[in-house]
Specification:
2 copies of one chain form a homodimer. Chain A is of the alpha/beta class. Chain A has 2 domains: about 250 residues, Aspartate Aminotransferase, domain 2 (3-Layer(aba) Sandwich), CATH 3.40.640; about 120 residues, Alpha-Beta Complex (Aspartate Aminotransferase, domain 1). Helix content of chain A is about 35%, strand content about 15%. The first copy, chain A, has 13 helices and 16 strands. In chain A, the strands form 5 sheets. A 7-stranded mixed beta sheet of chain A has the order 1-9-8-5-4-2-3, sandwiched between helices. The first copy, chain A, has a 3-stranded antiparallel beta sheet with strand order 14-15-16. In chain A, a hairpin with a 2-residue loop joins strand 12 and strand 13. In chain A, helix 2 runs parallel beside helix 8 and helix 10 crosses helix 13.
Chain lengths: ~400, ~400
């Protein structure tokens, strides 16, 4: 079906300046990968979020795969993860042999909190993955306390919330590892794919470059001649005497140059999306059938605009928006335990009633940054009419 | 040290038309990943090499990682791989639990052949990885016969030889799986990173999309409403009843648009590089201290220009080229068994005397496509003078 307003196929338009950065990088970057643009992007990213180490990678899943490797999972170890998230937040940990314990969300914020996580902690818990879903920052201070008390590694999946803050501290910098995405649908994108892994932990920071780039490193001895015994060494990434396998998760120089440039615009994009979201929500204040999460502060990047539908039928709402107005609303994020992959991995059971309730009654509106105000107004008016019809 | 002529930091310059393709893709691609440009690139690639299925991926290592997964390695299984290659040709197979048996090269062609591979076959052999190193196509017909006789899966690593042919058949299409690279240093590059995995095997082709993109697939049942029960399924990639873990190895739309465009130029680049290589080699015909592999046919893409040094000291040659003329010659490829990673993985022993002899006496000249003819002439003249000095 052809929609008048499809759900976000991409998030934003590139400015002329951003296009120029790409053209210049194509002309002048030597080499085209693992060069000075990567270093600059990583440095600027560190400055922006205020962290010690940042590693540009091919996508956020790659960052999560490395985070999962860094946990040094042993048989029986458990990792607490929300079931209400994208699949990449979870399967890398299964791959490393962990058992996942699914944490429920708070029905109002739609993300996990210290209370729902605490219920999942056992003597086997190794780590917690918090996802700042939809762009909203979870209660990281309380969750960090919980992690510290229980000696757990804390990973923040900030794929949807780059630039978000909690008490003036950037999301991603509370945990031991922070994961960011520059995928097509995210608030900034490095040409469709891209990600970043950050940490303040020096042991992690030492091993990540080898994990990312095929185990490449310098020889440990000094060399008089640059080619002897070879151009460089390839070694086993090693953490606390455990060997990890390397990967190739490199991000190209052109993408890094663009990422550096787009960092200048993330605050403006987030502010504008938040302003639009609050406007949209306020306009629907007399439509209590749609329950939004209102947070008019930098704690919410409003990457996506979602509501829980009550009193009217959710599916009728989506159907009418689609059939009568050509607007493609979607549902997300399918509780992971319901997917065939997780069932086959023996992770098909959860105790997350709020996740189930929310997902089965939620709607996500088209909300890409590139939508014109007129399109947003059209969605708003259609929404009102559909709710009125279904009352 | 600053070199007057550094070793290839990137391979080629982008043309104005290629830059325009990127700019247009930035402006008009919706979405920015996993869209129509990927499909077009894959289709055009299939047409170019003449294969049934092609899958664009984030890099050639990712393609090799998936190839290794598709082998369904069991404990004790062996994979035959040249030790004279880049590390990505090998470690993905270790990751899947295989034992590597290192195959030696032919001293003249610098790649493996049916004879060196045959010596490595045991009752535990599961697969053969052939690397068309430096751009030269190995004896694929004989090697395929060997694989067929012994019921082995044959993988071609064509990272350095896109466009190369053997008896009018493109390299990469002889084996069950073919791997290509569009890395910064390769004859064409999709902005620094990128790769392709090809196959004619329908079972492989069915599972690769899930392996590549987080297990995403359609639901197996028909749906009246596009959002029920969710936007799509996530399932376990399954081959011959074995579960494989998914990955995220996606290549962005802008990169795919550029790759499609650059396919139009690969033959011209290869021809020009081959013409230059033959010229370089002919000019040095009175310098038998440098033994080149001469192949003036599409069987050699001359991705790199390498020679074995005899009678004079190899290290003195490189030192003089560097110190006296500012030309950065390098050595490659360090026999993998010598790297710390392979030693630690219990793969530190090989029986590859020709590989050892070649590596310890080889030199690789700067040979990127973007070198000016004047620069190539400068390298040529310097080479002559250095050899004469060292005689």
């Amino acid at each position: 079906m052809n929609f008048k307003i499809p759900f976000a196929g991409r998030q934003h338009e590139y400015s002329d300046e951003e296009i120029e950065v790409v053209v210049n990088a194509m002309k002048f970057s030597v080499p085209l990968t693992q060069g000075s643009n990567l270093k600059l992007f990583q440095n600027e990213f560190c400055d922006y979020v205020n962290c010690r180490h940042a590693f540009g990678v091919s996508n956020a899943t790659a960052a999560l795969e490395m985070a999962a490797q860094l946990l040094l999972i042993n048989e029986g170890d458990e990792v607490i993860i929300p079931s209400h998230t994208y699949t990449s937040s979870a399967y890398p940990f299964l791959k490393q042999g962990a058992k996942i314990v699914w944490a429920d969300i708070d029905l109002q914020t739609r993300v996990v909190n210290a209370e729902t996580i605490k219920k999942c902690i056992t003597k086997n818990t190794k780590a917690i993955v918090v996802v700042h879903l939809y762009g909203f920052g979870a209660d990281m201070e309380e969750i960090l306390d919980l992690a510290t008390e229980n000696d757990l590694i804390l990973i923040e999946d900030v794929a949807q919330a780059l630039g978000g803050e909690l008490n003036s501290k950037k999301l991603g910098t509370f945990g031991h590892l922070g994961v960011f995405s520059f995928h097509s649908h995210k608030n900034i994108s490095t040409l469709g794919e891209g990600g970043m892994l950050i940490t303040d932990d020096e042991n992690f920071a030492k091993v990540i470059p080898l994990l990312r780039h095929n185990g490449h490193c310098d020889f440990e001895f000094s060399r008089d001649q640059y080619w002897l015994p070879a151009m460089g060494n390839v070694d086993m990434p090693t953490l606390h005497n455990s060997y990890l396998w390397p990967n190739n998760y490199c991000l190209g120089e052109v993408e890094c140059a663009l990422g550096t440039k787009m960092l200048q615009r993330i605050d403006a994009i987030n502010s504008e999306k938040r302003r639009r979201a609050i406007h949209f929500i306020n306009e629907l204040s007399n439509y209590p059938e749609l329950q939004f999460h209102v947070e008019d502060s930098p704690r919410h990047a409003y990457h996506l605009l979602v509501a829980m539908v009550t009193d009217i039928d959710r599916d009728d709402f989506i159907k009418s928006m689609s059939n009568d107005y050509g607007i493609q609303c979607v549902v997300q994020y399918y509780p992971l335990d319901r997917y065939d992959l997780y069932k086959k991995a023996d992770q098909g059971k959860s105790n997350c009633p709020k996740t189930d309730l929310f997902f089965d009654n939620m709607v996500s509106f088209p909300f890409q940054h590139s939508l014109a105000m007129a399109e947003l107004d059209y969605i708003l008016e259609a929404t009102k009419k559909v709710v009125e019809k279904l009352r």
